[in-house]
């Protein structure tokens, strides 16, 4: 009711303003209240809307006036073309996976788990506890709250085999999500113009961060158990690269997991080339049929720079992650973090720590495993039933996504558009390839929406595939 009245007042005033001279004084709030039989709150809301739209301005103690400068024409930003010059390289502005979902559309394109897969009760309790703690009013140390650093170090240390020195609290740098950590690592350890090896396909955000850092990405083909060590060795030798970005556990988009033996072989190649492995452990909490096995646990010589995110498992709103790095590399990364953001919100760190140290956290993770398994299998079954010409590249042992190859005759951009027109958003695989894609792929996320919609989604995908073939 109030919203309707405020809308009506806005419309009437807009009509009046359209013919009023700049600087004309609006009727007082009291007059507007009387004229529109509305409450003062409703009138104030209408005035705020008009202010936001740039049509009026209020001068405290004097009144509200029609703005003197009104935009009759589109604003001209042409001067920026000259000031900015050409971009260093073509950098995409974002990913289609971050697009909002229109109403009545089934969203399989996005990457974030549904609220029902989050530890909601733990989150709300932790946030209110953190709000009452000193973390709410103090600055966090640059590398993070010591107790949270200790938690990240201890989690990795728990998987370190005998004979390898575990990481320490001082090796941990807390981050506001791992995305900005990737940017820091690429800037600090690789640098503009230098080569970086990357599994292909790989996370679009890593490709984007590398492009933004001016790093030259060299793809290394990767399969269901990771890249071939000989192929990796050849890429190091041919390019002179000193860093390799990879996701050994539940890779986005394929869900691939390196085998134990494979991980050791690949790490040996990294050692032999005096290089860094940038290990992105984004899906550590999303094992379904296996447990994650960080490669960083096998290295105590500072070759592995480990990035562990809590964003998707704790809460996208709390968004905490950490880098574990040793030696001078750690110092370089801290210097970059200082320039990028100085420190991470202490209240969010305190809340994240609270959540992952509750007994309920492990109970939650056990339940999550079952739910992800049920969702993954339902989407696979639905696709088998309704879209049999889409080929699942492998049943992922963990993660949040399925990676399908479509028949080569499919024109991918059109397929994705047609799916959306018919009510399903899927992610075009093109974004996950650092160079040309090796076929027509789509990524389907099984964590983000109500699984009851999976059969309908698969039916639509199958229909669009049939139409397009
Ligand atoms: C592989 C991978 N790394 C990093 C990130 C970014 O994580 P965060 O949300 O912690 O910044 C994502 C997010 O989707 C991801 O898929």
Key traits:
single chain; 469 residues; alpha/beta; Arc Repressor Mutant, subunit A; Aspartate Aminotransferase, domain 1; Aspartate Aminotransferase, domain 2; 3 domains; eight-stranded mixed beta sheet; four-stranded antiparallel beta sheet; 41% helix; 14% strand; binds pyridoxal-5'-phosphate
Description:
The chain has 469 residues and is an alpha/beta fold. The protein has three domains: 2-66, Orthogonal Bundle (Arc Repressor Mutant, subunit A), CATH 1.10.10; 96-111 and 361-468, Aspartate Aminotransferase, domain 1 (Alpha-Beta Complex); 120-357, Type I PLP-dependent aspartate aminotransferase-like (Major domain) (Aspartate Aminotransferase, domain 2). It is 41% helix and 14% strand. It has 15 helices and 16 strands. The strands form four sheets. Strands 4-11-10-9-8-5-6-7 form an eight-stranded mixed sheet, sandwiched between helices. A hairpin with a 2-residue loop joins β6 (216-223) and β7. The radius of gyration is 26 Å and the shape is globular. The two termini are 52 Å apart. The protein binds pyridoxal-5'-phosphate. Pyridoxal-5'-phosphate (PLP) binds at residues 111, 177-179, 203, 205, 247, 252, 280, 282, 309, 311, 321.
Categorize the overall geometry. Answer: globular
CATH topology of the largest domain: Aspartate Aminotransferase, domain 2
Unique bound compounds: pyridoxal-5'-phosphate
- The secondary structure category is alpha/beta
């Amino acid at each position: 009711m109030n919203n309707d009245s405020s809308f009506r007042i806005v419309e009437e005033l807009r009509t009046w303003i359209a013919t009023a001279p700049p600087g004309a004084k609006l009727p007082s709030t009291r007059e507007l209240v009387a004229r529109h039989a509305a409450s003062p709150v409703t009138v104030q809301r209408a005035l705020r809307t008009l202010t936001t739209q740039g049509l009026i301005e209020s001068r405290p103690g004097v009144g509200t006036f029609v703005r003197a400068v009104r935009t009759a024409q589109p604003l001209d930003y042409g001067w920026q073309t000259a000031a900015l010059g050409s971009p260093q390289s073509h950098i995409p502005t974002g990913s289609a996976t971050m697009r909002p979902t229109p109403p009545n559309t089934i969203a399989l394109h996005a990457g974030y788990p549904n609220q029902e897969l989050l530890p909601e009760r733990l989150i709300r309790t932790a946030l209110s506890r953190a709000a009452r703690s000193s973390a709410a009013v103090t600055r966090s140390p640059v590398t993070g709250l010591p107790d949270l650093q200790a938690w990240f170090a201890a989690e990795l240390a728990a998987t370190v085999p005998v004979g390898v020195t575990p990481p320490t609290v001082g090796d941990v740098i807390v981050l506001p999500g791992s995305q900005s950590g990737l940017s820091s690592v690429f800037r600090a350890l690789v640098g503009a113009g230098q080569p970086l090896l990357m599994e292909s396909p790989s996370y679009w955000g890593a490709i984007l961060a590398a492009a933004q850092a001016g790093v030259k990405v060299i793809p290394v083909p990767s399969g269901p158990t990771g890249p071939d060590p000989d192929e990796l060795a050849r890429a190091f030798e041919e390019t002179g690269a000193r860093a390799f970005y990879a996701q050994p556990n539940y890779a986005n988009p394929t869900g691939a997991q390196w085998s134990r033996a494979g991980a050791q072989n690949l790490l040996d190649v990294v050692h032999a080339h005096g290089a860094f492995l940038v290990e992105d452990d984004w899906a550590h909490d999303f094992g379904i049929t296996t447990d994650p096995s960080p490669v960083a646990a096998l290295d105590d010589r500072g070759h592995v720079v480990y990035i562990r995110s809590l964003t998707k498992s704790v809460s996208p709103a709390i968004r905490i992650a950490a880098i574990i790095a040793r030696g001078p590399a750690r110092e370089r990364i801290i210097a970059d973090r200082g320039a990028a953001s100085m420190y991470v919100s202490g209240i969010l760190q305190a809340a994240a720590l609270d959540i992952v140290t509750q007994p309920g956290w492990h109970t939650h993770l056990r339940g999550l495993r079952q739910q992800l398994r049920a969702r993954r299998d339902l989407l696979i079954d639905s696709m088998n039933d309704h879209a049999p010409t889409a080929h699942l590249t492998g049943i992922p042992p963990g993660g949040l996504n399925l990676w399908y190859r479509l028949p080569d005759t499919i024109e991918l951009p059109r397929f994705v558009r047609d799916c959306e027109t018919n009510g399903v958003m899927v992610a075009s695989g093109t974004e996950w390839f650092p160079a040309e894609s090796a076929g027509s792929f789509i990524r389907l996320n099984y964590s983000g929406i109500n699984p009851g919609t999976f059969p309908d989604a698969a039916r639509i995908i199958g229909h669009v595939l049939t139409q397009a073939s």
